UniProtKB/TrEMBL annotation:
InterPro entries: Glutathione-S-Trfase_C-like (IPR010987), Glutathione-S-Trfase_C_sf (IPR036282), Glutathione_S-Trfase (IPR040079), Glutathione_S-Trfase_N (IPR004045), GST_C (IPR004046), GST_Theta (IPR051369), Thioredoxin-like_sf (IPR036249). This is Glutathione transferase. Its main location: cytoplasm. PROSITE patterns: GST_CTER, GST_NTER. It is found in: Cytoplasm. GO terms for molecular function: glutathione transferase activity. The keyword Cytoplasm applies. Keywords: Cytoplasm. Residues 90-225 form the GST C-terminal domain.
Length: 225
């Protein structure tokens, strides 16, 4: 399409990384606009005009504005008439990918964030202290539920959407699970996940999008406790 694609994102965000990776894997050119989540730039009047929900990622394509990462991927695939293995035109494969993207919000993303937000994010942006003792242990169990849920998913075919090869569903899952390294959870103790992670993590576009996260893991953010 003739219109420029404007992408508003912060690569520390899992959904943002997934959209960026999809664009790169699909050869979609875009102009990147950094929205620093830690600095609260998503609350600015300028960004709120683009996305009233004040969340990243968001895109502007001509006069069309859209948020929510799965919706963005679906839109871009159709807008640019893309038919590749990451999100193909085959309606049955797409349906499996869509099903996983719906499922993962509650069964991976939410459970992971119940631990990550109080342990890492809130202490970074406020005076909140990271939970300790029994509270921390219970939250960690929630995060481990996310890992175990995904390990169960991989039983079928070894891929997130139960497809015969990797799709954008695997990119979304990888972006989520890698965040757990910030709190010392390495899912490599699960053989199926390790095999899957080695494959997805070896993709150049995936590696590039995760550089900011790996830098943060190497130099953990300061906490206020």
């Amino acid at each position: 399409m003739a219109e420029n694609l404007e992408l508003y994102a912060d690569l520390i965000s899992e959904p943002c990384r997934s959209v960026v990776i999809y664009c790169k894997l699909s050869g979609i050119a875009y102009n990147f606009h950094s929205i620093d989540l830690i600095k609260g730039e998503f609350l600015s009047p300028e960004f709120t005009e683009i996305n009233p929900f004040q969340e990243v990622p968001a895109i502007v394509h001509g006069d069309f504005k859209l948020n929510q990462s799965p919706a963005i991927v679906k839109y871009l695939a159709d807008a640019y008439n893309i038919d590749n293995p990451w999100y193909p035109k085959d309606i049955k494969v797409r349906a499996r990918i869509d099903a996983f993207l719906h499922w993962h919000h509650q069964n991976i993303r939410e459970k992971k964030d119940e631990y990550l937000l109080p342990m890492i994010v809130l202490p970074m942006i406020s005076d909140a202290k990271a939970p300790e003792g029994e509270v921390e242990a219970k939250l960690r169990e929630k995060a481990m539920e996310a890992v175990k849920n995904f390990d169960w998913i991989l039983e079928a075919t070894g891929y997130a959407a139960r497809t015969e090869r990797a799709t954008i569903a695997d990119v979304f899952a990888f972006s989520e699970l890698e965040m757990l390294k910030l709190v010392g959870i390495d899912a490599n103790e699960f053989p199926r996940i390790k095999k899957w992670r080695d494959e997805i993590g070896a993709i150049q576009e995936v590696q590039e999008a995760h550089e900011i996260l790996y830098a943060m893991i190497a130099n953990p953010p300061q906490k206020n406790n």
